[in-house]
Amino acid sequence: MGGKKKPTISQAEKALLREARRQESRKGRTKEMTRMEKKISGVIPPNPKDENVIKEVRRMRVLTPYTVASRFSLRLSVAKDFLEELSRIGVITPVASSRYVKIYKPT
């Protein structure tokens, strides 16, 4: 009947060599993956009344939740709350807002 035929000796040797190379490359990948660590975004925002934070914010020309989240290693939701707190304090003023994003500038 039909079906897969038995490979010749040379074909079987080549298949074993290919499999050994694959295993070698997989070992290298796992070592690289253990070296690379994923950076976890913070949940706790910095103190909005801290002078260093205020200086850092004043250096930025435009403040959006994404820029603040990337600068201070925060989650976007935490960055939005942080910007609202800075706005309440009077460090920044809102420039424009849409349904999803609010844009601020330092005062």
Task: Give an overview in words.
The chain is rod-shaped. It folds into two domains: 7-37; 51-106, Orthogonal Bundle (Arc Repressor Mutant, subunit A), CATH 1.10.10. It is built from four helices and two strands, in the order H-H-H-H-E-E. 11% of the residues are buried. It has a two-stranded antiparallel sheet with strand order 1-2. Helix 3 packs across helix 4 (76-89). It has 107 residues and is mostly helical. Strand 1 (92-97) and strand 2 form a beta hairpin.
Entry summary:
The chain is mainly alpha-helical and 107 residues long. It is 54% helix and 10% strand. The protein has two domains: 7-37; 51-106, Arc Repressor Mutant, subunit A, CATH 1.10.10.10.
Overall mean confidence score, pLDDT:
88
Per DSSP, the total helix count is 4
Percent helix among the residues? 40-55%
How many DSSP E strands? 2
- Integer-rounded radius of gyration: 27 Å
H/E element order = HHHHEE
The CATH topology of the largest domain comes to Arc Repressor Mutant, subunit A
Question: By CATH's scheme, which homologous superfamily of the largest domain applies?
Answer: Winged helix-like DNA-binding domain superfamily/Winged helix DNA-binding domain
Q: How do the strands line up in the largest sheet?
A: 1-2
Question: How many strands, which pairing sense, and closed or not: the largest β-sheet?
Answer: 2 strands, antiparallel
Overall, the morphology is: rod-shaped
Q: What separation lies between the terminal Cα atoms? A: 83 Å
Low-confidence stretches: none
